[in-house]
Design brief:
Blueprint: H1 3-6, H2 8-16, E1 25-27, E2 34-37, E3 42-52, H3 64-80, E4 85-95, H4 101-117, E5 121-129, E6 134-144, E7 159-163, H5 173-176, H6 181-190, E8 195-198, H7 203-214, E9 216-221, H8 234-237, E10 246-250, H9 252-261, E11 270-278, E12 283-286, E13 292-294
Parallel strand pairs: 4-5, 9-12
Antiparallel strand pairs: 1-2, 2-3, 3-6, 4-6, 7-10, 7-11, 8-10, 9-11, 12-13
Helix pairs in contact: 3-4, 3-6
Length: about 300
């Protein structure tokens, strides 16, 4: 049996069952970041993510500054999805020694720019030679215990909301997006968010991850989903990934309070796109003609 036969989701779940965890771990594999006991009032958040040439970017289409920005920003987005603040980063780079020094400097400038914008300290890392460019970043963050949000808290009756717009990542949005740290912090400090994830592998896939963790179903409404001006077809937009928007759920009363008292104060749009249902009701989309279509773990997967 080969890895592609098991699939990325199956492989990760299988490995997670064998990993050693002790009582200091509140949440291990299966969320945007691990949650670790830390202080009386806060949890430590740990995440890692990599960008790989010809998988996450193509050199002919991306400036080295943008590659560096993306490598750091996608990790920052994971911390945002937990309701936290990013703090300390370790950076490992594998690069062709034939590349110019100026190319490497621009990579670092991009990483530093994202780190500086979100007050992240780059505290060390590693370097290796490679024919293909790879950047792997490990990021530590923190979150107040009362504000941490997992994927597993969605409940039937919750409303599903999303920041910004969906689609168009293939036209450059995946390189210069802004992680929704401030949006996440403002929302979790003022409202009870039951579940949250950042959209890295597509709206449909990442909502499925919330449903899988929460043992719930959902109904999405096509006409409500905000598409970016660069989005292609609707089906491509909801499955291509790398939007790095926040997808989250709230009970109806909290959502009403949010829309009534706070939405107008936010610079980033937030849109109601569906509702959480009982698991037995399944995962479905109501299309523009009012017909139901079944959904599942459909979106970007490495294999």
């Amino acid at each position: 049996m080969k890895l592609k036969d098991v699939g990325e989701i199956g492989l990760i779940k299988g490995f997670a069952r064998t990993m050693r965890l002790d009582g200091s771990v509140v949440k291990g594999s299966g969320d945007d970041a691990a949650v670790i006991k830390w202080t009386r009032s806060k949890y430590l958040l740990l995440t890692c993510d990599m960008v790989v040439e010809d998988v996450h970017f193509k050199l002919r289409d991306a400036l080295p500054f943008d590659i560096g920005w993306k490598a750091m920003a996608r990790n920052i987005s994971d911390i945002a999805a937990m309701g936290g603040l990013p703090r300390y980063a370790l950076v490992s780079v594998a690069i062709d020694p034939g590349k110019s020094v100026s190319f490497a400097r621009e990579l670092v400038k991009g990483m530093n720019a994202a780190a500086s914008r979100f007050n992240v300290n780059i505290v060390g890392g590693d370097m290796s030679r490679s024919k293909s460019l790879m950047i792997d970043i490990s990021l530590a963050g923190e979150v107040e215990k009362r504000n941490v949000v997992l994927r597993s808290g969605a409940k039937p009756g919750d409303l599903i909301l999303v920041t910004g717009s969906i689609g168009g990542s293939g036209k450059g949005r995946h390189l210069n997006f802004i992680p929704r740290v401030s949006e996440a912090r403002e929302i979790v400090k003022r409202f009870k968010v039951n579940s949250m994830i950042d959209i890295s592998d597509g709206l449909v896939m990442d909502l499925w991850r919330i449903l899988d963790a929460s043992k719930a179903g959902a109904t999405l409404y096509q006409n409500a989903i905000p598409l970016s001006k660069d989005a292609g077809s609707f089906k491509k937009a909801i499955s291509e990934g790398e939007d790095f928007e926040l997808l989250f759920t709230m009970k109806i009363s909290e959502a009403k309070r949010f829309f009534k008292t706070y939405l107008g104060k936010m610079k980033t749009p937030v849109t109601l796109i569906g509702e959480i249902t009982e698991k037995k009701n399944g995962y479905k989309l109501v299309n523009g003609q009012g017909k139901e279509e079944k959904l599942g773990p459909r979106g970007y997967a490495h294999f």
